[in-house]
Amino acid sequence: MEDKKILILNKQQIQQKIDRIAYQILEDNFEEKELIIAGMLPRGGFLAARLKKVLDKIAPFKTTLLTLDLDRLSTSLNAKVDFDIQICNNKVVILVDDVLNSGKSLAYGFGVFLDVPLKKMRTVVLVDRNHKNFPINTDYSGMALSTIIKEHIDVVLSETGEEDAVYLK
């Protein structure tokens, strides 16, 4: 059987979604002095870096980019971070991932910050599939897409942005 891919978002549409999300983040945090943008590797990290780039152009506040490397297949929280978690004390943290499916990855992402007194935490995903097993909601999403469980969302993001696309398979 042929593996059919349907293009959901092209490179330009992805950038439009990122720009819109960046403006929403700015509107919700215009009084802040600094935002922490935590990207969940790999594609959430690329998306977070692009959000930071847009926010650095439009926002008066400082943005700090962090990355989380989670073992998404583990039955317990197993995360590597590239920063001292205490730099997030009393700051706004924006947790970024590419797709929200069951909510497990974002729940693990929250777990990294549980022992830190945050001002607030918000979530960003490019695509929300609406198949949550965990009580996770996104604050900012590029698009919500109702799919069947057997379908797969394939987000292709690179550091350079040359091959950006989102496919339904």
TrEMBL record:
Instruction: Show the Gene3D superfamilies listed in the entry.
Output: 3.40.50.2020
Q: What GO molecular functions are on record for this protein?
A: glycosyltransferase activity
Q: Does the keyword Glycosyltransferase apply?
A: yes
Per UniProt, the keywords (alphabetical) are: Glycosyltransferase, Transferase
Q: What residue stretches are annotated with the Phosphoribosyltransferase domain?
A: 8-155
Pfam families the record matches: Pribosyltran (PF00156)
The protein's name is Phosphoribosyltransferase domain-containing protein
